[in-house]
Structures are given as C-alpha cells and as structure tokens.
Amino acid sequence: LVVDWLAKFWPLRTVGPTIPSKYLDERLEDDKEYGVNLFKSDNDACIKWLNERPKGSVAYVSFGSAAKLDDEQMEELAWGLRRSKSNFLWVVRASEAAKVPKGFIEETSEKGLVVSWCSQMEVLVHEAVGCFVTHCGWNSTLEALSLGVPMLAMPQWTDQRTNAKFIMDVWKIGITAPSDEKGKVRQEVVEHCISEIMEGERGKEMKINALKWKKLARKAVDEGGSSDKNIDEFISKLVQ
C-alpha cells in the first residue's frame, strides 16, 4: 500500500531483498557479504559448533551491532536460554560481555556457545538453526525473512516494534515476546516462546510460512523476478 501511494507522486520501482546473492538466488558466487564488518568475527568457531548440532535444534540469539539490554534484561535472557530445552548460539558484543551472569557460560557449555560476533547470514542458513531471537532491526528481520528462519521478536526501539508487528501478525513467522509491567521479558517467557517456535504447533505453522516467504524472496531476485525486471526497467529509463 505504501508503494502504491508513493507511485502516485514519483516514478517508482522496488528492488530486493538486498542481501548478498550467495544466500538467496546464487547468481553471483562472489557476492558473499555487504562489504563492511564492524567487529571481528568468531565465524569458524560458530560453524564448527553448529555442524555438531542436530538439524533445527539451535536458537540463534543476536541483538545486532547497536541495541543494548540492561543488566536485568540480560540476566533474564540468559537464564531463559538455560531453562530452554534448545541449544543456543548467543552473540554478545565485547562491550556487553560484562552483563552476562557470572558462571553462565560454564554452566551452559554443553548446550550453548557465546561469541562476540559472527557472520549472521552464514549462521541463519545453517540447517542446525531453528529459531532467531532478535531485536528486529531491519537488516536482521530482512535476512531471517529471506532465509526462512522463524523469529522470537524482542524489539527495543525505533522501527523494531513495527518490524515485530509484521513478523507476528502479517508474515506470521514468529512471536513477539510479551514483557511485564517493568518492560522486561522474563526468563520463563523466553523459555516458553523458544519452545513454542521450536516444538509447538504454532511453530510448525511459522516454519511453513517462513519457507513460503523464503521462496517468494528468491523468486523476486531471481532472473525474470520482480526485482530483476524493475532494475532493468530503471536502467532502460536512464539510458533513453
């Protein structure tokens, strides 16, 4: 609807999803990343660890490059991951590491891996990943949508609450974690929501919907798709 409205005022063509070709249509083998790495990645360790986990058994947890959780929310998330039956891969930036509860990493070493950064798309396409616990930044949302990964939404600010609304109510590929009167998502909620996505009946529907959106995303950027056609039309207008 927004696109249709804007098209009344300006010539408009939509393109995307704009994620590296390697992970979607595979038409450009060398198109593997955005070209900017804000942090040093522990990617080799992540992929090695994921390779040793069963298909769909891992909850991947990341709040991006800027979002921050306060100490109380960090603790609730940590203990929720411990209570969960699922394995987890948790990205905790170096600037946030001091907020991880004391002893947590050692207590959960058999089921979890905590790293400072990783290649998110490499992780999301891995068959071991069954759920993405996310702050719902647009890049993370678009990547998970395009790669067919159900999400547990924990939005923090700006557009993230709108993105979470689409994840749960429009695309139907995830759950928005409810918060209490203090605005905190408690550990039992984290545990329940991950279980619902990974093992519950609603989770089965989310996975079906996620695969549907993945196919639509690939179709859009593939040869002859809507994005492909719109780029050609845009270029043809420029060279006339």
Automatic annotation (TrEMBL):
The keyword Transferase applies. This is Uncharacterized protein. It holds the Pfam family UDPGT. GO terms for molecular function: quercetin 3-O-glucosyltransferase activity; quercetin 7-O-glucosyltransferase activity. GO terms for cellular component: cytoplasm. PROSITE patterns: UDPGT (PS00375). CDD domains: GT1_Gtf-like (cd03784). PANTHER family: GLUCOSYL/GLUCURONOSYL TRANSFERASES, GLYCOSYLTRANSFERASE. It comes from the Eukaryota. Keywords: Glycosyltransferase, Transferase. Belongs to the UDP-glycosyltransferase family. The keyword Transferase applies.
